[in-house]
Specification:
With 498 residues, the protein is α/β, with parallel strands linked by helices. The protein has two domains: 2-8 and 380-497, Sandwich (Immunoglobulin-like), CATH 2.60.40; 15-377, Alpha-Beta Barrel (TIM Barrel), CATH 3.20.20.80. It has helices at residues 49-57, 102-112, 127-138, 143-151, 180-197, 211-221, 246-252, 258-269, 302-305, 320-335, 366-377, and strands at 2-13, 20-22, 62-65, 87-89, 94-96, 115-119, 162-165, 202-205, 227-235, 277-286, 340-345, 355-358, 361-364, 381-387, 392-396, 402-406, 408-415, 418-427, 434-440, 447-453, 462-463, 466-467, 472-478, 484-487, 491-497. A hairpin with a 2-residue loop joins strand 12 and strand 13 (361-364). The longest helix has 18 residues, at 180-197. The two termini are 21 Å apart. 51% of the residues are buried. The structure holds alpha-L-arabinofuranose (AHR). The site of alpha-L-arabinofuranose (AHR) has 11 residues, from loops. Residues 24, 67-69, 167-168, 231, 238, 282, 287-288 line the site of alpha-L-arabinofuranose.
Length: 498
């Protein structure tokens, strides 16, 4: 197959925030995850040093917190200051000690060097409670909340730029769910009050691909919004934990751009596409396993709804299928970098995350290495490229039907600050190696090297004491027009030229 790369035709410069992450007060993401006071591996503030290091290595640009469903009955004031009030989290039906709150979260963001992104409670919360939170974080000293922050030991404002009004308030499962009409008004009044506190904030609001919901939201609050927030989990196994197999996951790669296209169309129709960007601020191939907690027939015992969450910790389930899909979705984000400015892998630590923690260390799951490849080896300028002789392959989707899909998923880039090119290539085939020729429309020279992960099989995975998957580098010599590069089966790679 031959890939034509047009270095002169730029799709755009991707915002590094498309490699963002999300962490929620759910299971072991916070407590026993990144925040583990008393563990010898934690620092004096209680944060796991090994987790911080892993987050720094993939240069987490932005970290969304505290939820997710959790946030829709969360009251931030209970989790700042000396007296922390444990509360019963009605979303996940567990007690939260509130020992990790806004001040600890900001400290975490400073330690990893990322932007904070706070999602507010638009379920049981009010416009006032949301904007009080912004006062606490962003005002110098005006008013009671900024003074409270100072009294809590932080004299300087946190300058939290990114805020979201609500989380999935459209869903029956969400505490304090809203109708489309209710949502338009609440989002407008909340975002107005937040902007009155700090006009420098950038605001998103919970949305989806539903026209009625989005038209109500945008017609009421577009004047205050900078982003529109959407979420997607393609293998929706929240109730069943019945993983889609490799072939079915390859069928899911046909759907990586569908939601983006639908929301882009609406923004364009409302003439908002130049002013409001998409924040894909929760995404993962796999839905989180938490049965009997969102259903109307709630689980009655902890065996029904709580203990099964531990099954998210089975590292053998995070294979090359997850890595290949994750790379295909990151390619989709790069291809749509003109309208998608942020995306947040859900979550980063434990549950379906890319970093798994245990008492004595961490496991870097297959998806972690995809972020390593894209953040540290791919360029930031997305170029026009096409493959005229793309081989197609037949795969069986989860419903048992046959689908056709491209065998390769490719994004070509250059570097805003240096010469050279970098091409993200995903070989989705479970068995077949593929040969790819890179053709540039201008003269290109320089060394060719490929950074990649593939594992020995589609079922390869990492676990405690087991490392099937790690980034490898293959030196391919000087670039010669017409040179062909062999792509291993089930492989995610970044080919650098020059
Ligand atoms: O399954 C986890 C949940 O997925 C998040 O809390 C919520 O935002 C989404 O529905």
């Amino acid at each position: 197959m031959k890939l034509y790369i047009n270095g002169q035709r730029r799709i755009g410069t991707r915002d590094r925030m498309i490699y963002g992450h999300f962490i929620e007060h759910f299971h072991r993401q916070i407590y026993g995850g990144v925040y583990d006071p008393g563990n010898p591996l934690s620092d004096t503030d209680g944060f796991r040093k090994d987790v911080l290091e892993a987050m720094r290595k993939i240069r987490v640009p932005i970290l969304r917190w505290p939820g997710g469903c959790f946030v829709s009955s969360y009251h931030w004031k209970d989790a700042v200051g000396e007296n922390r009030t444990p509360f019963f989290d009605k979303a996940w039906r567990v007690e939260d000690p509130n020992s990790f709150g806004t001040d600890e979260y900001i400290k975490l963001c400073r330690k990893i060097g990322c932007e904070p992104y706070i999602c507010t409670n638009a379920g049981t919360g009010t416009a006032e409670e949301m904007s009080d939170w912004v006062e606490y974080c962003n005002l110098e000293c005006e008013g009671q909340y900024a003074k409270w922050r100072i009294a809590n030991g932080s004299p300087k404002p946190y300058k939290v730029k990114y805020w979201s009004v609500g989380n999935e308030n459209y869903g029956f499962w969400e505490i304090g769910a809203k109708s489309a009409k209710e949502w338009g008004r609440l989002a407008a009044e909340s975002s107005k009050m937040i902007k009155h506190v700090d006009p420098e904030t950038e605001l998103s609001a919970a949305a989806l691909t539903d026209l009625n919901w989005n038209i109500n939201l945008l017609s009421e609050s577009a004047q205050f919004l900078d982003w529109i927030s959407i979420h997607e989990y393609w293998d929706g196994i929240h109730q069943t934990n019945d993983y889609a197999d490799y072939e079915a996951v390859m069928a899911y790669t046909n759907q990586t751009e569908r939601s983006i296209a639908e929301v882009r169309g609406l923004l364009t129709a409302m003439r908002l596409e130049k002013r409001i960007k998409i924040a894909f601020d929760e995404w993962n191939l796999r839905g989180w396993y938490h049965p009997n907690v969102h259903t109307i027939k709630q689980g009655r015992t902890k065996e029904d709804y709580l203990y099964p969450r531990d099954k998210n910790d089975d590292n053998s389930k995070y294979t090359m299928a997850d890595a290949v899909f994750t790379a295909c979705f990151l390619n989709a984000l790069n291809r749509n970098c003109d309208i998608v400015g942020m995306a947040n892998f859900a979550p980063i630590v434990n549950t379906r995350g890319c970093i798994f923690t245990h008492r004595d260390g961490i496991v870097l799951r297959s998806t972690y290495h995809v972020f390593d490849l894209y953040v540290n080896y791919l360029g930031d300028v997305v170029l026009d490229s096409w493959c005229g002789d793309m081989e197609r392959m037949q795969v069986q989707n989860k419903a048992g039907d046959m689908e056709e899909t491209d065998s390769l998923d490719i994004v070509a880039t250059s570097f805003g600050r240096r010469d050279g090119y970098a091409v993200a290539v995903v070989n989705k085939s479970a068995e077949k190696s593929r040969k790819l020729e890179l053709s540039f429309e201008t003269e290109v020279s320089g060394a060719v090297r490929m950074y990649y992960i593939s594992g020995d099989s589609t079922e390869s995975y990492n676990d405690i004491g087991r490392e099937d998957i790690a980034v490898k580098c293959e030196e391919l010599g000087e670039y010669i027009p017409g040179m062909e590069i062999t792509l291993r089966p089930h492989m995610v790679g970044v080919i650098q030229v020059g």
